[in-house]
Task: structure prediction
Amino acid sequence: MFVLGIESSCDETAAAVVRDGKLLSCVIASQIKDHSAYGGVVPELASRKHIEAIVPVIEQALREAGAAFRDLEGIAVTRGPGLIGSLLVGLSAAKALAYALGIPFVGVNHLEAHIMASSLGEKKPNFPFAALVVSGGHTNVYSVKNYHQFALLGQTRDDAAGEALDKAAKLLDLGYPGGVVIDRMSRDGSPECFSFPRAMKDSPDFSFSGLKTSLLVMMKKRASSFTEAELPNVVASYQEAIVDVLVEKTLRAARENNLDQIVVCGGVAANSRLRTKFSEAAIREGVELFFPPMILCTDNAAMVAALGEIMLENGRSDSLDLNAVSRWPLVSLSSAKTGGAEKT
Ligand code: KG4
Ligand code: ZN
Result:
């Protein structure tokens, strides 16, 4: 099927075209420079930027795929979770196109799309597998039994891992998005130089808010004696505390649930230290590891189109009164629920 995917849940306006499981184009208009002055995403600004970018991004995705609107057989769009104003821009565009072209459209779950990004890599996992979705808004471990069939094995009780990186970078005045800056700077630092807490060691759940506080306390204590030259050691040690728990708890969840394949996806899956430590641990434990291609770790529409194509081929489509949802926990079968327990 010729499917256009649209993603606008946070600060990336993205469109992509897939055909029969093959990616033909993937266009991402990032709003990083619009939000960097604020050290984080400003929801109202994000919605406005999506409105400006959505049509040119869709047109570019079609052009790069060598396709015209009339070639499209279906449209997939992120319905949630995410910022409601941002989601509505992509959803409205998808509905308008589907109506005008007389083709079906389907609203997909952003977290499920992140997991399905692994199906666009050279090596694809087979069901069942474990999945760590780790981004700016989520840190969840799932057992993925099949399409739309998930069991939540662990989740963050407070901040997401990406959020912990972004907040640390803001605290240290390093720039935005913090995960990328900390990843780069950590390469020149020692991960053992400072000791940061690894919270809730025996729980399947994660907690990162205490980590951020311990950084704040450390910086306050050392304010007068702290030198710029120490920064790489500080961020490398901070990053290591996050990476350690992500690797350890995901592997434990896989082991306890007899899953020997692990998908690691979401923006933080682009982190070089996480990729290295996961790869080393996977070899030790004899599990197979799947990372989506680098460009498909952070938000994109290829993952939305890939999942949407499968859903449309299985006869799933939505009506034009479909609404966006800011919270949409990934529990078995993706029926939309608002106000679920899972953090978005
Ligand atoms: O998946 P994503 O684009 O958006 C959400 O759904 O949240 O993830 C964005 C998050 C941000 O917190 C960003 O700092 C983090 O992913 N991130 C990284 C890296 N690239 C992006 N964190 C660590 N290392 C990276 N290389
Ligand atoms: Zn995401």
